[in-house]
Amino acid sequence: MYKILSLVVFFLCLAPGQSLAASFYSADGDKYSVAYNKHGAVLTSEHDKYFPKNAAGSDMKKTKLRLYLGVQCDAYSENYGNGKWGQSPGGFVIRFDHKAFGFIRQEIAVPHAGKCTLSLE
After folding, report:
1. What pTM, to 2 d.p., does this model score?
2. Model pLDDT, residue 74
3. Residues 84-113, buried b or exposed e (16+ Cβ, 10 A)?
4. Whole-angstrom Cα distance, residue 52 to residue 62?
5. Is the pLDDT reported for residue 31 higher than 60?
6. Nearest to 105 by CA among 38, 24, 31, 47
7. Does domain 22-115 have CATH number 2.40.50?
8. In this structure, how many other beta carbons lie within 10 angstroms of the beta carbon of residue 21?
9. Is 4 helix (H, G, I), strand (E, B) or coil?
10. What angle do CA 65, 25, 108 make, to 5 degrees?
11. How far is CA 36 from CA 9, 43, 101, 108, in A?
């Protein structure tokens, strides 16, 4: 019995553990790092992007894009406002009113993400 148990433990130690992706690539080819917290995840662009400084849009600011994904399938970005996100076996999508970000063949490890399924809106 001890030998069998030892072999089981040995092979379990050899099995690869579930690894969480340290970065994601959008369908646009942009690289994002990810940080997880109790509220969900924050995706941060690797490179700075240009956004209007104000509603008039005449002045531009250069900053990293941050996409906040909540455990209630909600999303937020300072640049795009409130949105929603969902995933399927084919990847995950973050949708805002005037912009969407697709992450093909990638899964994000947000708690309760199984309930955040993609809808055909």
Report:
1. 0.76
2. 96
3. bbbbeeebbbbbbeeeebebeeebbebeeb
4. 9
5. yes
6. 24
7. no
8. 14
9. helix
10. 90
11. 30, 9, 18, 10
The residues, any chain, with a CB within 8 Å of residue 19's CB and separated by 6 or more, are none
Phi-psi region of 73 (alpha: psi -120 to 50; beta: other; left: phi over 0): left
The DSSP string of 12-80 is HHHSPPPPPPSEEE-TTS-EEEEEEETTEEEEEESS-EEEESSTT--SEEEE--EEEEETTSEEEETTT
Residue partners of 74: CB distance under 8 A and separation at least 6: 82, 83, 84, 85
Residue 60, classified by CB atoms within 10 Å of its CB into exposed (0-12), middle (13-18) or buried (19+), is exposed
Which of 48, 19, 12 has its CA nearest to residue 32?
48
